[in-house]
Design a protein that fits this description.
about 325 residues; alpha/beta; Spore Coat Polysaccharide Biosynthesis Protein SpsA, Chain A; 9-stranded mixed β-sheet; 9 strands
């Protein structure tokens, strides 16, 4: 059997509410040379039925069901192990995707062989598919100089690069995404040290924010336990230490010259010092600061509906 050009890996746990709509926008892509692997992390709602129904309709879907909940991060990594495509994309079960997202990112990687990842403009949507925020991408991840790319990842907030289209070879050369606090950021740092990220300036990715998101857990330990249940008993200090060492490991493994590696370590030390100072300052000022009441953004025109119109599949 000929391998597909691209593998989409979709991890899911109890995603019944938004899963079908997300699958519709993936299966309705203008680029169709892909396999879609769904790894169901022992869901207890109607997720399994939805997955099996879609798999019966489209031969590109391969459905895997875990016998027990192995944690969000191991479930993500398993999909990379199963991938057959030369390109890979993680897809969240509750996000939406413009019809040309895959085509635009694959074309970008074909035209820019120095890039290891391609991603498009992003907007945040709510549970009603309304755009509540347009995300500005500010990372200097397309710099030809690896230490500059790392510095941008360290000091610049934002970016959901792990949901771009990634060269599978670069993905597998990096250490698998771990389950300590902010591990996705150290993972992106390692990818950035291995190659440039190409930005497609088109709004094609819609990331959903809703009350049931797994990353809404209130504490670092709770977040990490969601990523991997084995983390539940680990101390916050350990989880934060592993976060820092994740960057150290990313730098040590990357294919860099001695001077580039030294510059990367300097950036890491500066970031660590600044982070510690800010943490101490925030604790000192907390008693005299207040957070204003949150006001939900005003409703906007249903732009997402226009982008994904016609992609809904008729499920019999």
């Amino acid at each position: 059997m000929t391998a597909p050009r691209l593998t989409i890996g979709l991890p899911v746990y109890n995603g019944e509410k938004y899963l079908a709509e997300s699958l519709d926008t993936l299966l309705g892509q203008t680029f169709g040379d892909f396999e879609l692997i769904i790894s169901d992390n022992a869901s207890t709602d109607g997720t399994e039925a939805t997955c099996r129904r879609y798999a019966a309709m489209d031969a590109r879907i391969r459905y895997l069901r875990q016998p027990r909940n192995i944690g969000a991060r191991p479930n993500h990594n398993l999909l990379v192990e199963q991938a057959r495509g030369e390109l890979f994309k993680w897809a969240a079960h509750d996000d939406l995707y413009g019809r040309d997202l895959l085509a635009a990112c694959v074309t970008a990687l074909d035209e820019h062989p120095e890039a290891v990842l391609a991603h498009a403009d992003e907007a945040i949507i709510n549970e009603r598919n309304q755009i509540v925020m347009h995300c500005e991408y500010t990372l200097d991840s397309d710099s030809p100089y690896a230490p500059d790319r790392l510095r941008s990842v360290l000091f610049t907030e934002g970016g959901d690069d792990e949901y771009g289209v990634i060269r599978t070879s670069a993905l597998r050369a990096a250490k698998p995404n771990n389950s300590y606090h902010n591990s996705s950021r150290t993972f992106i740092a390692e990818l950035a040290l291995r190659g440039r990220f190409h930005h497609v300036p088109e709004l094609l990715y819609f990331r959903r924010d809703h009350p049931d998101r797994g990353d809404r857990n209130p504490t670092i330990r709770a977040l990490c336990a969601n990523l991997d249940p084995r983390r539940a008993e680990h101390s916050t200090a350990r989880l934060l230490t592993e976060y820092v060492w994740g960057f150290v490991g990313s730098i040590s493994r990357a294919p860099l010259s001695n001077s580039e590696r030294w510059r990367c370590y300097r950036h890491l030390v500066h970031w660590l010092v600044r982070s510690c100072v800010r943490r101490v300052a925030s604790r000192s000022l907390a008693p005299i600061m207040s957070l204003g009441d949150y006001t939900e953004p005003a409703e906007t025109a249903p732009i997402v509906a226009e982008v994904v119109e016609g992609q809904r599949r008729t499920v019999l």
